[in-house]
Amino acid sequence: MEIFGIPLAAFLGQLLLGLVNGSFYAMLSLGLAVIFGLLNVINFAHGALYMMGAFLAWMGLQYFGISYWVMLLLAPLMIALFGMVIERSMLRWLYQLDHLYGLLLTFGITLIIEGVFRSFYGVSGQPFAVPPQLAGATDLGFMMLPIYRAWVVVASLVVCLVTWFVIEKTRLGAYLRAGTENPRMVEAFGINVPLMVTLTYGFGVALAAFAGVLAAPVLQVSPLMGSNLIVTIFAVVVIGGMGSILGSIVTGLALGVIEGLTKVFYPELSSTVVFIIMAIVLLVRPAGLFGREK
Amino acid sequence: MSRKLGYTAVLLGLLIAPFALYPVLLMKILCFALFACAFNLLIGFTGLLSFGHAAFFGGAAYITGHALKLWGLPFELGILTGTLFAALVGWVIGGLAIRRQGIYFTMITLALAQMLFFVFLQAPFTGGEDGLQSIPRGYLLGVIDLRNDLTMYYVVLAIMVLSFALIVRVIHSPFGQVLKAVRENEPRATSLGYEVARYKSLAFVLSAALAGLAGSVKAVVLGFGTLTDVHWSMSGLVVLMTLVGGMGTLFGPVLGAIIIIALENKLGDVGAWLAQVTAVEWFNTLGESVTMITGLIFVICVLAFRRGIIGELVARLR
Amino acid sequence: MTLALEIKGLQAWYGESHILHDMNLSVAQGEVVTLLGRNGAGRTTTLRAIMGLTGRRSGSIKINGIETIALPTHRIAHFGIGYCPEERAIFSSLSAEENLMLPPTLTAGGMSVDEIYQMFPNLEERRLSQGTRLSGGEQQMLAVARILRTGAKLLLLDEISEGLAPVIVQALSRMISTLKAKGYTIVMVEQNFRFAAPLADRFYVIEHGHVVAQFNANELSTKTDELNELLGV
């Protein structure tokens, strides 16, 4: 059976891959948006911390024999701690200044992190085996479904939706939303906003690290995997606008799928299609698809 | 008066420099100095942080290289083609980026430059990972042989001095004053009746064109153009040069370019010396770790040294 | 008995702007005190300085006898202070009920949600609406209600009658009388003299960031000329 001249199984395979990439886009842009909302900082280091998450998973397995499942929880925790140290020691001095300094600082941190990893591991990727419980594929009849890829999409969606729920529907999320709008007032109520800021940064980068662990068996674990991704994430965030949590998730997934489909029909365009869409959105709806002008 | 003396002294120094230092290295520094000055026009004087200037620098390098190598254009026309290309791309990218403010502007410049990177990566004429090699120097105006490094140096110096003079002229002109007003308080400038978007666009195009000029000349000097020149790490490098030297100052970017390029060249030696002194083998890889050192300088500058060297000096002397 | 609030030699800045110069005032437990003065005199800044919301501060601010001048804002609230800012600061990304429930309970003895909805039935009706979709009067009630919920016994109220319909202003007046009867300590900044006069025990007149006059409620009739001069345009 064929769709537009492509065999159905291949088409669906690419669609799934697009969903996988879209899951990473969604999780990373979600973390970036949450951090930007409260801190007013574009965390350039998001890509590097995603890479660190993947590397921690690889190192855990390689040097300590720690399983993927443990690293799935441990790596985000470790990166969260690392992120919180960065926020406390460096980022917080810049909040009073022009936003661009936050970007420049996190850019510098990205270079340091990447430089360190490159000096030890070069630029080639390390392979990471799919955990045995998720290996293989099931035959759905119309296509073969690699179990691990389905897992990535499901896990990402769950994490994103739980994040959305916590932020939009719970008391804790109310503190975050109120703090994004008027942090001084929230402090006047007795909430330790500086601590909330630190924890939020930790949470945002933990999301990135979680995506990194998920990505490890799919892509190769390389020091450059973050920098390849971060610029695309910026485009995703400009397209979606950073005002809405759900908007970030939907935009990320949609762009991943569009990119995947482009790979099938116009492969030459696949690496630039996201940026082309960004250009179009800028012309037609500058605030972004779900954006609230900040 | 002392300013004129200062300029003259610097000029004299530049005229005799190639007899003391390698002309090719000097030319490379001059190109990056212009690149940084062009970038500074946008961030230091208009308040717009572009993270995609590599698109103009490296893009013009490719176009000029292609023009000289495959179309056989003479030097001056090749350089002009590259510069015009950069101006055009600057007009497009600037036009799109200006539609958003603040940090969004920066992200858009980065994303669009990245898109251009992918275009160059895939385009056959650039030679992809290998780069565009063997760009001929040819003759200036059909008579001056540029294959002589010394001759080339003086041509490059003339181009750079003229460009620098242009930048100084622009900054002190009424146009430049409006740019400064936009940087200080954009809503105020709008309320005074200035079409801020047009001014930003013009500044962007000018900055892009000059960055392109720098890239074009560099391609001819070194004889090749590579993907590194269009990668966002190059955009980051020019930001660093300007930051270290001093954003918004006239000579800051020049000083920053000198420091960063010297650092790049000497990093391997410094690393080897450190490895000897501390017996830590890892320091030997320092030469490869330009990325990491660049990042460290960034972090230190942003936290403790935001005004840059010239900026600090200016502040102290007040 | 310790004073609820004691301010001595308070200076406060917003960046480079020096707003409060040697501010001195005190409020006893259960008192209602009104800060009068022209616009820009520093009345709002005084309230904000108590909460630590200005730039640099120096001097002494004692709340229930404890020095708070060096404390960060989020610690100051825990002394049982509720701050109701002039701009009301209702969060648009929260519903009315979320706004109401947002401030954490500071001490026991705050009004329960039921009691609050009894006092302000409009708020119950509109509780699922987006906070900023409420009318001006409703937002004002919400701003006051949410600090009543926390158990705060020292209330800092900034221009709560401003821009509201007379019938709402009357309701607010009744509310303050009720709170006063319950022993709340209240510091009010008020332009509307007719609103403040029947409620306050004492008045401070502030000009150029310090106190220029103060008098009790029973001195009002004799001080009207002086007041008109001080507050007149």
Secondary structure layout:
The complex is a heterotrimer of chains A (294), B (318) and C (233).
Chain A: E1 2-3, E2 6-7, H1 8-39, H2 46-64, H3 68-89, H4 99-121, E3 137-139, E4 144-146, H5 147-169, H6 171-181, H7 183-188, H8 193-215, H9 225-240, H10 245-265, H11 273-284
Antiparallel strand pairs in A: 1-2, 3-4
Helix pairs in contact in A: 1-5, 1-8, 1-9, 1-10, 2-3, 2-4, 2-8, 2-9, 3-8, 5-6, 9-10, 9-11
Chain B: H1 2-16, H2 23-46, H3 54-69, H4 75-97, H5 102-122, E1 139-140, E2 144-145, H6 149-172, H7 174-184, H8 186-191, H9 196-222, H10 232-245, H11 252-278, H12 290-304, H13 308-317
Antiparallel strand pairs in B: 1-2
Chain C: E1 5-14, E2 17-27, E3 32-37, H1 43-51, E4 57-63, E5 66-67, H2 73-76, E6 81-84, H3 96-101, H4 113-119, H5 121-125, H6 136-148, E7 154-158, H7 166-181, E8 185-189, H8 193-196, E9 202-207, E10 210-216, H9 220-231
Parallel strand pairs in C: 3-8, 3-9, 6-7, 7-8
Antiparallel strand pairs in C: 1-2, 1-4, 4-5, 9-10
Description:
The complex is a heterotrimer of chains A (294), B (318) and C (233). Chain A is mostly helical. Chain A has eleven helices and four strands. The radius of gyration of chain A is 19 Å and the shape is globular. In chain A, helix 2 packs parallel to helix 4 (99-121) and helix 5 packs across helix 6 (171-181). Chain B is mainly α and 318 residues long. Chain B has 13 helices and two strands, in the order H-H-H-H-H-E-E-H-H-H-H-H-H-H-H. Chain B has helices at residues 2-16, 23-46, 54-69, 75-97, 102-122, 149-172, 174-184, 186-191, 196-222, 232-245, 252-278, 290-304, 308-317; strands at residues 139-140, 144-145. Chain B has a two-stranded antiparallel sheet with strand order 1-2. Chain B is globular. The model of chain B has no long low-confidence stretch (mean pLDDT 88). Chain C is an alpha/beta fold. Chain C has a single domain (31-55, 78-231), classed as P-loop containing nucleotide triphosphate hydrolases (Rossmann fold), CATH 3.40.50.300. Chain C is built from nine helices and ten strands. In chain C, strand 9 and strand 10 (210-216) form a beta hairpin. Chain C is globular and about 45 Å long. In chain C, 45% of the residues are buried. Chains in contact: A-B, A-C.
